[in-house]
């Protein structure tokens, strides 16, 4: 018996508290975020999606984002047009289900439709 995969959905303001909690569980790998900073980043993001009841999420930015990450700024200094994958997080209980792969596949479809040809 196969189960239907949890849907991929746009991130909304109602998801912010859960995203913040999941992000900060992985602050060592990502970076710690405060609520205000997360709200700002979500407003600047090119593409953000979640799977299910926040089993996973992805946040990306394009070259126009007001984002001060040194890694992002490195790409902006070198490329005119790009999409930067800032974070992909999968909850511990949801690992091994292909969520990151599905989020990347969905992102690449969105990027292609938007006319980008560089994902970093």
Task: Name the descriptors.
Aminopeptidase, 19% strand, four-stranded antiparallel β-sheet, single chain, alpha+beta, 120 residues
- Poorly predicted runs are none
- Side by side, the strands of the main sheet go 1-2-3-4
- Fold-level CATH name: Aminopeptidase
How many structurally independent domains?
Answer: 1
Annotated CATH architecture: 3-Layer(aba) Sandwich
Radius of gyration, in Å, reads 14 Å
Q: What is the H/E order?
A: EHHEEHEH
Give the fraction of residues assigned to helices: 25-40%
The count of β-strands is 4
Mean of pLDDT: 96
User: Class in CATH?
Assistant: Alpha Beta
Distance between the termini: 37 Å
- Main sheet attributes: strand count, strand direction, barrel closure: 4 strands, antiparallel
Written account of the structure:
By secondary structure, the protein is α+β, with helices and mostly antiparallel strands. The protein has a single domain, classed as Aminopeptidase (3-Layer(aba) Sandwich), CATH 3.40.630. Helices cover 37% and strands 19% of the residues. It has four helices and four strands; from the N terminus they run βααββαβα. The protein has a four-stranded antiparallel sheet with strand order 1-2-3-4, with helices on both faces.
What's the short version?
With 120 residues, the protein is α+β, with helices and mostly antiparallel strands.
Topology, pairings included?
Elements lengths: L7 E3 L5 H10 L9 H10 L2 E5 L4 E7 L7 H9 L4 E8 L8 H15 L7
Antiparallel strand pairs: 1-2, 2-3, 3-4
